Amino acid sequence: MLNTIVLSAILIISAATIGLIYRVIKGPTTPDRVVALDAIGINLVAIVALISIALNTSAFVEVILLIGILAFIGTVAFSKYLEKGLLSKMNEIANIVIIVLIILGAFLSLVAAYGVIRLPDIYTRNHAASKSATLGVMSILLGALLFFYVKDGFFNSRVLLGIIFIFMTSPVAGHLIARAAYNSGVELWDKSVQDDLKDAPHMKKAGSKEQ
Hints:
Elements: H1 2-26, H2 30-55, H3 61-83, H4 90-118, H5 122-152, H6 157-183, H7 201-210
Helix pairs in contact: 1-2, 2-3, 4-5, 5-6
């Protein structure tokens, strides 16, 4: 029952988001597009939260935070410059945002590599790779999306699909790697203080079958 409701909500919000994308393209004014973009950001947060419920994982929490922060910053920036009538400087603002996204993406990718090298076991290394690397790549792709929007005047659908593909698949892939490692008997770090899967019902069943 819950899964049916969650799936229905995802479909409804996705349909609403498509309508908002139409308003972004159609306009006719810049404030219209800003309002639609703000609503799209809110809808994306809701969709990712619902996907987290459907997949029974918190792997997408960082994605929710990133989308929420970027949507808020973008709305505030657009609003301030619209209010002051400085639309001629929008390209300069866009370049600053692109630079910030690229630097943030590069930094998060560096953090992910450092975590994979230095952390003590597969589970913590996998966490670093799936979280930091995913956010790093998404930040760079968002920068690319904004760059081509400023350059060409419309959102590049291939970059947009890349963003959707990354944040849908990377956290799930990390989750599957961790489960596969655990089920194959890879030990946790000897200083780990909690093992959430140890007492899980499906793990008990698996253990009893092996015996």
